[in-house]
Fold DUF4395 domain-containing protein.
Amino acid sequence: MRFSIGNFPDTVNEFAARSVAGFVFLLSLLTIWTQSLWLVAALALGFLARVLYGPKFSPFARLAIHVVVPVLGLGTRTVPGPPKRFAQGIGLVFSGTALILLSFGFFSEFRIVLGILAIFAALESFLGFCAGCFVFGKLMQWGWVPREICEKCNNLTFSSEK
């Protein structure tokens, strides 16, 4: 029996994920500019919601799935869910760290950490490069993440290695 928290989907619409990353990018920039504890807390809670339950309780994900993707006619490109969940976990670490730093008055460090998050969100949103997914793939390749965690990843990402 495999331990699982929440109900993250096995597959994700790449266009919805990129739209969420766009929202994260914009909120990160706004948060850096305003240095608002409320905004960085909202950012961290959004990542927590997506890590635990995928799009179910995430306002950004719901907006992306039900408004942005259909209105822009982006369609569906299905990608494996576990790498995206891993990437959301990394986002949670960065946004949580930024929240702690800002709470204790480390303004420069807060800006740096949230700036890094904004850069990686921009890479995913605008260029389609998910750094967390890339790292997840490497961890699978090196045997640090068991292949059973993501069977779809085995078929898509590492098919040339079989």
Summary: The first strand starts at residue 11 and ends at 13.
